[in-house]
Design brief:
The longest helix is centred in the last third of the chain and has 26 residues. The protein is α/β, with parallel strands linked by helices. It contains 16 helices and 27 strands.
């Protein structure tokens, strides 16, 4: 039985600009909690300054790395966005219609459309993607750790450090319980209960939302920083890394960076003298390759095309970029459904991960008493945006998205009562590349992911959708789905035009597409893109940029495959892990000199 018409993706994905999940607006008490004295606006930065370490990018890796390095060294953390809490541009009512037109520099995410036609987003806020995602927390597999060449004991210690700060066990509502039992009945076994480990079967994972519904982010790690050794500048856009030649060799040495504040004033930051001072890029899959190229390290032909002097010809910068394709179906429910983000995951043995989100965009509360209830938006996962009609990737123009949004307003509100079940494929095997569009560091580069170019990815998607169908038909899930397509359509689609495509299971009879075609036409992102600075191609095993001294890249751009079902845990861990290793190396060398 094939799924219903289209996952409606364009609109869905255009919404990511700030409302991917829950509101970032925090209470005055929470805002006070995150009033770090060492966090300042870039306009207040001196024109020239010096530090042991310059960390570029205050995201999921950058915050944990900077906090760790500050334990024994003077560190500067540069973030192009603002604080995640109290951001008035991100409210509980902010959703896809706002995102389509939102070009505010204060938005916590920056929309981009890949060359494949899939709308995506790049975090622009202290804390990075942890401020915008669905909050699910799970470690990488033991096999992934071994393949990366990491020290397992230090990895586990670094995970525990992260988890003490911001990981919680979720309260699992009935819809998620039904999804869990449905996965088991569909054959995604065994039942692993609650665990943070990545193991085959069905499990309850961790979350970065606490029991009150408050989101915790990577910015929380800064509470562990040494307040007199760490400086953070917000709204600081780094334009280039400064290099000089290493003596008589052809190798380069990084010795500082240039950043610009919102007024256009340029600031220079230099590394303090000493062989162990470093510039460390933690700007993410898009930001780190882009900054290397803007600084003259990348494919020579591409650099010269933009008038950039090639400091070093490095053709592998920006190569091997991948985004795990995500396809989802919305399952309308005949009964009200409580709001929930990703809490359950089914880890299949054929390379597909199954997850779910539930609830309505129209005000079902997540936590709290009736007097405290607030409408919250799922952004891309909201049932309203998720059902917007079939728009294949290369047809996802803003006008097409607006038309689909208008069509959805004619549906009965009961059409938005239910939840998404989605599948994300392992890997993926299909890869693409990043290229510069311009020399503007504030602009997004051109990104091609080549979704489903490798047929193995397509077959994994097909098996994932087939698993979702079995879950929807399972006894465990019967309460939250209509008995058949006819009953569903009679109940909730009577006001809709007959031709209106909606993304539903059970399917509408008019949809006869093969599942392979369905996967390609309804592909979405789940923001787990990675690559562009692979270990062995751009950086070494210690994340040092090849043939450059004093420069590392420590973030998801170094990953060949996305770790676990959701990568944020491992990216946060990597910041802590490498921070400890760098400090150990620094002070071991100092001891040897004495």
């Amino acid at each position: 039985m094939a799924p219903g018409r289209g996952c409606s993706v364009a609109l869905v994905l255009a919404t990511v600009l700030g409302s991917l999940c829950l509101s970032l607006v925090a209470s005055p008490e929470v805002q006070k909690r995150y009033s770090f004295r060492f966090v300042r606006h870039a306009r207040d930065a001196p024109l020239v300054s010096h530090y042991n370490y310059i960390v570029v990018g205050g995201g999921t890796a950058g915050c944990s790395l900077a906090a760790t390095l500050s334990e024994r060294a003077h560190v500067l953390l540069l973030e192009r966005g603002g604080l995640p809490y109290g951001n008035r541009n991100v409210s509980s009512e902010y959703h896809f219609a706002d995102a389509l037109a939102d070009t505010s520099p204060r938005s916590p995410a920056q929309r981009f459309i890949s060359e494949d036609g899939v709308v995506n987003a790049r975090a622009r806020v202290l804390g990075g993607g942890s401020c915008l995602n669905a909050g699910f927390y799970t470690r990488a597999s033991n096999g992934y750790v071994r393949a990366a060449g990491w020290d397992p004991r230090l990895v586990n210690a670094s995970y525990r450090w992260v988890e003490r700060e911001l990981v919680f066990r979720p309260d699992v509502p009935q819809w998620q319980c039904a999804l869990r039992k449905g996965l088991l009945q569909a054959g995604v076994t065994p039942d692993n209960g609650y665990t943070l480990e990545h193991v085959p079967g069905t499990k309850i994972g961790g979350t970065i939302f606490d029991r009150t519904g408050q989101r915790h982010t990577a910015a929380d790690f800064l509470r562990r920083a040494h307040p007199r050794r760490l400086t953070v500048f917000l709204h600081a856009t780094v334009s280039r890394i400064l290099f000089r030649r290493s003596g008589t060799t052809a190798n380069q040495v990084a010795y500082g960076v240039v950043f610009t504040d919102p007024a256009g004033v340029r600031h220079r930051v230099y590394l303090r003298s000493g062989a162990k001072s470093e510039v460390i890029l933690t700007a993410g899959t898009l930001g780190s390759p882009q900054l290397l190229m803007l600084s003259g390290i990348g494919p020579r032909r591409q650099l010269e095309k933009h008038g950039i002097h090639a400091v070093m010809d490095q053709p592998m910068v920006g190569q091997g970029v991948a985004d795990n394709p995500m396809n989802s179906v919305f399952v309308p429910s005949p009964v009200p459904v409580a709001l929930s983000l990703v809490q359950i995951v089914g880890v299949s043995r054929f390379g597909t991960f199954i997850e779910g989100v539930s609830g309505s965009q129209f005000g079902i509360p997540l936590h709290g008493r009736a007097a405290d209830r607030r409408t919250r938006s799922f952004g891309m996962f909201s049932p309203m945006t998720g059902q917007l009609g079939t728009v294949p990737p290369m047809e996802r123009t803003p006008e097409a998205m607006r038309r689909a949004a208008e069509a959805m307003r004619r549906l009965d509100r009961r059409a938005f009562r239910g939840g998404f079940i989605l599948e994300k494929i392992l890997g993926p095997m299909s890869t693409g590349h990043i290229e510069l569009r311009s020399t503007d560091p504030a602009a997004n580069p051109a990104v091609t992911f080549n979704y489903f170019r490798d047929r193995r990815d397509v077959e994994r998607c097909v098996r994932g959708i087939q698993t979702i169908e079995r879950v929807v038909r399972s006894r465990a899930f019967a309460r939250f789905t209509y008995a058949n397509g006819s009953a569903m359509e009679a109940a909730i689609l009577s006001r809709a035009a007959n031709h209106l495509p909606v993304n539903l299971l059970p399917r509408r009879a008019s949809d006869t597409r093969p599942l392979q075609q369905y996967c390609r036409e309804t592909v979405m992102t789940i923001w787990h893109y990675h690559g562009g600075c692979h270990v062995g191609a751009v950086v070494d095993q210690d994340y040092r940029v090849l043939r450059v001294r004093g420069l590392r890249v420590i973030d998801s751009s170094t990953f060949k495959y996305s770790p676990g079902t959701n990568p944020q845990a491992t990216v946060m861990m990597l910041g802590r892990y490498m921070g400890l290793k760098i400090l150990q190396e620094r002070w071991t060398k100092n001891d040897e000199r004495h």
